[in-house]
């Protein structure tokens, strides 16, 4: 697996700002955001709706250009879509006229490269979709479609996986299953994951670090480390540390709507 030289974080966001030029004037979506993400960390980003989370993630993917600042992958500035970066969105975005196998094959066709069939079969097995390759998206549940989109992203063996509210449309039970699945996949093949969510529970369960953004213009307001060992059991969610952390993050987000000038603070939850 590709990792950056020891001196570089895997992803380095430096003073990233984004101004959208709109008909009603300039809109500052991101204001000098700086975040270092180390290789194979799982980092969640939470914050009020419209604070610039998607803007930041798309900038990390190279699909959006920043107005100023830069984002580096393994020390090199990202200037466009990168083969080492996979993306998963809230909607599975499977092509409805293609079956599951053909959907997974699609990015390889675009790049004129051969898929690693054994790896894809392993992933399908891992997410419980072995034997579903001939099914069309309409024949799959929402959770299955989202699992398929994760397989499609991982089939390219990215070293960074960017996920934008990937389970936001799923019921809470399926969502918990998907959270465990992400952890299992990560344990199987460690990958740097940046995960946007509106669920503080999901962020805490999944992440090594939770970054809280302030209301627009988005800035990094606070950052928390979550030090529970992996694999994590759902029981950690019933502990006092997690309860306190959840409340602290909720207050940050509510506070962030009115106050955008908070001093950065780090806090830690003791390992289980
Ligand atoms: N293409 C665009 N053109 C103009 N404004 C945009 C564009 N994309 C996003 N915005 C604005 O930038 C701000 C940040 O949007 P963004 O989608 O990044 O927020 P978000 O934190 O992902 O929100 P949510 O939690 O609701 O998904 C919002 O005010 C949004 O209206
Ligand atoms: Mg968004």
From TrEMBL:
Keywords annotated in UniProt: ATP-binding, Nucleotide-binding, Transport
Pfam families: ABC_tran
Keyword Transport: yes
Gene3D superfamilies: P-loop containing nucleotide triphosphate hydrolases
Keyword ATP-binding: yes
InterPro entries recorded: AAA+_ATPase, ABC_transporter-like_ATP-bd, ABC_transporter-like_CS, ABC_transporter_ATP-bind, P-loop_NTPase
Any one GO MF annotation of this record: ATP hydrolysis activity
Ranges for domain ABC transporter: 13-240
Record-linked CDD domains: ABC_NrtD_SsuB_transporters
Taxonomy, superkingdom: Bacteria
PANTHER family according to UniProt: ALIPHATIC SULFONATES IMPORT ATP-BINDING PROTEIN SSUB, TAURINE IMPORT ATP-BINDING PROTEIN-RELATED
Family: Belongs to the ABC transporter superfamily.
Protein name, UniProt field: ABC transporter ATP-binding protein
Organism: Labrys okinawensis
């Amino acid at each position: 697996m590709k990792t950056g030289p020891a001196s570089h974080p895997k992803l380095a966001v430096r003073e990233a700002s984004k101004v959208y030029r709109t008909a009603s004037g300039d809109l500052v979506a991101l204001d000098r955001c700086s975040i270092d993400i180390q290789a194979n960390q799982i980092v969640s980003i939470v914050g009020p709706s419209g604070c610039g989370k998607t803007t930041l993630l798309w900038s990390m993917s190279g699909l959006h250009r920043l107005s100023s600042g830069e984002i580096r992958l393994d020390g090199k500035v990202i200037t466009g879509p990168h083969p080492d970066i996979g993306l998963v969105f809230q909607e599975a975005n499977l092509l409805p006229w293609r079956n599951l196998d053909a959907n997974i094959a699609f990015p390889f066709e675009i790049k004129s490269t051969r898929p690693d069939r054994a790896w894809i079969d392993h992933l399908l097995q891992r997410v419980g979709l072995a034997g579903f390759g001939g099914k069309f998206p309409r024949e799959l549940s929402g959770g299955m479609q989202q699992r398929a989109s994760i397989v499609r992203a991982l089939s390219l063996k990215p070293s960074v996986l960017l996920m934008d509210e990937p389970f936001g449309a799923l019921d809470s039970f399926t969502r918990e299953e998907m959270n465990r699945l992400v952890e299992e996949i990560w344990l199987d093949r460690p990958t740097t994951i940046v995960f946007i969510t509106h669920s503080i529970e999901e962020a805490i369960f999944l992440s090594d670090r939770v970054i809280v953004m302030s209301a627009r213009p988005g800035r990094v307001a606070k950052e928390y480390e979550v030090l529970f060992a992996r694999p994590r059991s759902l029981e950690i969610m019933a502990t006092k540390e997690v309860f306190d952390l959840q409340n602290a993050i909720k207050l940050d987000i509510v506070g962030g709507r009115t106050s955008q000038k908070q001093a950065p603070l780090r806090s830690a939850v003791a390992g289980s």
